[in-house]
Design a protein that fits this description.
single chain; mainly beta; four-stranded antiparallel beta sheet; two-stranded antiparallel ribbon; 1 helix; globular; disordered N terminus
């Protein structure tokens, strides 16, 4: 998936939500879905959105359906170019 709405900037560590993901995150939150983290993938990886589930010990990545048990942070890893991705969801 090509991300045309935002450009990857490896020096922008203060970014909270990729600009192209804001509408999706706002929609999920408006419908009572608590988001934990997200990334558009910047044309290199699949987009990802991690949400809380009804069971507090689980979070889920909504595009792949991957469940994370007991993990509350550190979902993403940085590759050699500085792009964050979820290793479990990468092709």
């Amino acid at each position: 998936m090509e991300c045309n709405m935002c450009e990857f900037d490896p020096k922008n560590d203060s970014r909270y939500i990729d600009p192209c993901m804001v509408k999706l995150i706002d929609y999920l939150r408006a419908h009572g879905i608590e988001t934990v983290s997200c990334c558009c993938g910047h044309g290199k990886y699949p987009p990802s959105v991690i949400v809380r589930t009804v069971r507090p010990e689980f979070t889920m990545e909504i595009f792949s359906g991957i469940l994370f048990e007991g993990r509350k942070k550190r979902y993403y890893r940085k590759d050699a170019q500085g792009v964050y991705h979820i290793p479990e969801a990468a092709p």
